[in-house]
Amino acid sequence: MGSEAIEAANAAVTVRLPGVLVDLFPGSTRSLEISVSTVDEMIRELDARWPGMRDRLCDSTPAIRRHINIFIDGERARLDTRIKPGAEVFILTAISGG
Amino acid sequence: MKKRVLILVGTRKGAFILEGDVKRKSWELRGPFCEHWPINHLVGDAETGTIYGGGGNEWFGPAIWKTTDLGKNWTHSSAGLAYDAGEEPIKAVWSVAPKNGSLYAGVQPAGLFRSDDGGLNWQHVEGLQKHPSRPRWNPGGAGLILHTLVLHPEDECQIWVGISAAGVFHTADGGETWEPRNRGIRADFLPEGQNYPEFGQCVHNLVMAPAMPTRFYQQNHCGMYRSDDAGKHWQSIEKGLPSSFGFPAAAHPRDPDTAFLIPLNGDSKGRYVPDAKAAVWRTRNAGATWEDLREGLPQKNAYFGVLRQAMATDRLEPAGVYFGTSTGTLFASADEGDSWIPIAEHLPTISSVETLIVGT
Question: What value of ipTM does the predicted structure carry?
């Protein structure tokens, strides 16, 4: 493996999506690896793959929706939170509703 | 395809479709659709057969759902369905109205959006938000919501909207400018002597009479009304009804003098049907007199209400009338309200009922 390939592999982060979100976007997957450096970039990348996904995760404030939680290495993230190479990002739906 | 009657039902937990033949004796229920989202309004485009569902999900926000094959496959979009950055985000879609290839959506917080590509992309109809009264609009109990949309049958520039609790507004130029149309409607919740403001009334529902685009029936938080001049003036038609409070109104498909209401027991007593006995009230003379229609409806221990968009008529002869309850029962009449049967039970809380005739 060359140095560029090693760098790309290192930059990749693992993103895990909730099942109820995947259900809304045929062809989407519960887990994927992408190369991004912030949460905002990650959501743009998800939207590029599955158009409309950003609207489901973010409101027009703009901010992550109130009942969506994004955790990176155990910490709750915001749109401007940086993602370190190799991190695992969990997108979760909060407990809400009745 | 044989002519079929579809009853489109929006509920707190998904959309449902009942399908029957023109006799309207037996029905098949399909659903839940829309991934169990709260669907505030499920409506069909009679010209294309496309069905649209407006709603909002606590996790994922507002969207318009769409099916072009009567419910087999659904898509959803909210592209452009947003206010400017920094403003309060849209929580849900409450009303959808298709006509002549265009689609309108009323949302919470109150605003109007338009799509010209079948609901894929949306543009804000900004004129309504620019009305000088906008800073003084106050929310109703469920929020500041544009929940009722009425489009003129021929003039595509004319639209009426109902906003809780700002009242009825009308545009004659496609949404650039608007004027309040609430003259004659009470606001009992305001101080004495200030009960007839220019705007701020709590409209609950508004329907246009058939082939008579100057006549409207309105169910308000504070009374039932009719207008014969496109909403410029309103007169009370609540005499003879058991209360002045209710949510839905429905017009007959052909007779502008016939309308249907479901009065409830008031705004502070549970909002049930009066005396726990269900009745639909029908006028045949534009609200001068009313008759209560009870045959087949529960007359004991009926502790349910009917929400603002949860009653509809179909276009058959005689007209069918349908309403859905807060307790998840859908009642149908195939004889203009004379008799009723439950055609679905144990559904989630029913938010809206509409009809769509397909086939020939």
Answer: 0.91
